[in-house]
Each structure stands twice: as structure tokens, then as C-alpha cells.
């Protein structure tokens, strides 16, 4: 089922999420709904707080990115060929010193892509949808996608990485999104609908 995506301004987007237990009620259905919601919105990742659930859970799909950049062919590392991943109770263990700036968008803040500086590589510890434990290192675009979704379960937004000047330049747009005066092609849950 496609769920409404929580828009900028909602308090849940600023909360550090609670851990997920293996016997979390409705977990399998929630993961399926998150995949459907992400696909419908044409996103590449989505976190539980974006669908109004206070859980340390996010999903990432690097399929289109991998095809565009041929990262899967260039990087034959363990697990690199699995483009759709579920991350439960993730914890980033290490960030690379090398960083790069790329444009990022967010389904909760539609239509406002921003240049964001992030580490090029990360090491992360997490459980998958079957509660199998993993510790892996990710690079490039996939590492960026994971960091973006990880920020959501930590109560952060990609906006937090932009300068005060950039923030002022988009302030009116952010207000319009929070008030529900923003049109998107997917269902949204606005913090202050008018």
C-alpha cells in the first residue's frame, strides 16, 4: 500500500527514532509498504519517519544509479550486486576523510535539490529484513544514499548541511511545503495544512 509521505515541518522528521525489535508488529508489511511508497514516488530511498513511523528503519534502492554509472560493474565487492536493501537499527561506524559535493533531493522536501557535502565512503552495522546482522563498507553514490536515509532515523535532514545563506534562499519554499501549498504527484501528510 502506498503511504502518505510526511512533509517538511512535521515533528517526526526531527526525532531520533527508536530501535526496531525482531517481533515488531507489522514489520514485514511496513517494509513492503515503504518499497511501494518509494517506488510510487520515484525515489531511491525512504525512511520510516517519512511514512510517520518512529522506527530505525530505512530502505535504499540503487538500481537506477547503478545502471547509470555502471558502479555494479566497476565494484565487484561483496554485496555490491544487491541493489535493494533494508537497513534496520543501523549505526554508521566510520566515515572516509575524502568527501564530495553532489546534489540531493528528498521526498519529504520535494522540488528543492541541494548541493550536499558528504563522505565518499562509510562503514555501517545493521540488520536486514530477516534480522541477519551485517557490517559493510559502501562507496560513492550508494554510500551517499545510505547516509541520507540514515540521517532521517537520526532526526536530521539534508537541509542541515547547507549554509545559512542557502537556507534563507529556500525559506519561502520550505514554508509552502510545511503548509501544504506544494503540489506533488504522490500523497503527502503536511504538518500545517491550510
Descriptive overview:
This protein is α+β, with helices and mostly antiparallel strands. The chain has one domain: Peptide deformylase (Peptide Deformylase, Alpha-Beta Complex), CATH 3.90.45.10. The chain contains five helices and nine strands; from the N terminus they run E-H-E-E-H-H-E-E-E-E-E-H-H-E. It has helices at residues 27-40, 63-69, 71-74, 140-153, 164-178, and strands spanning 5-6, 45-47, 57-61, 84-95, 99-106, 109-119, 121-127, 133-139, 188-189. It has a five-stranded antiparallel sheet with strand order 2-3-4-7-8, sandwiched between helices. It has a two-stranded parallel sheet with strand order 1-9. The chain has a two-stranded antiparallel ribbon with strand order 5-6. Strand 5 (99-106) and strand 6 (109-119) form a beta hairpin. Mean pLDDT is 91; it is low at 68-79.
Amino acid at each position: 500500500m502506498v503511504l502518505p509521505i510526511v512533509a517538511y515541518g512535521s515533528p517526526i522528521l526531527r526525532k531520533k527514532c527508536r530501535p526496531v525489535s525482531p517481533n515488531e508488529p507489522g514489520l514485514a508489511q511496513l517494509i513492503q509498504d515503504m518499497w511501494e511508497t518509494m517506488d510510487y514516488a520515484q525515489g531511491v530511498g525512504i525512511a520510516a519517519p517519512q511514512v510517520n513511523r518512529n522506527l530505525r528503519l530505512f530502505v535504499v534502492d540503487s538500481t537506477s544509479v547503478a545502471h547509470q554509472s555502471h558502479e555494479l560493474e566497476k565494484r565487484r565487492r561483496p554485496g555490491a550486486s544487491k541493489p535493494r536493501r533494508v537497513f534496520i537499527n543501523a549505526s554508521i561506524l566510520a566515515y572516509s576523510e575524502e568527501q564530495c559535493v553532489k546534489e540531493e533531493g528528498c521526498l519529504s522536501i520535494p522540488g528543492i535539490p541541494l548541493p550536499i557535502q558528504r563522505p565518499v565512503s562509510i562503514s555501517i552495522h545493521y540488520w536486514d529484513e530477516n534480522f541477519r546482522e551485517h557490517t559493510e563498507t559502501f562507496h560513492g553514490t550508494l554510500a551517499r544514499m545510505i547516509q541520507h536515509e540514515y540521517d532521517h532515523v537520526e532526526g536530521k535532514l539534508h537541509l542541515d548541511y547547507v549554509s545559512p545563506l542557502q537556507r534563507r534562499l529556500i525559506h519561502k519554499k520550505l514554508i509552502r511545503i510545511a503548509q501544504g501549498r506544494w503540489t506533488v504527484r504522490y500523497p503527502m501528510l503536511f504538518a500545517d495544512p491550510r
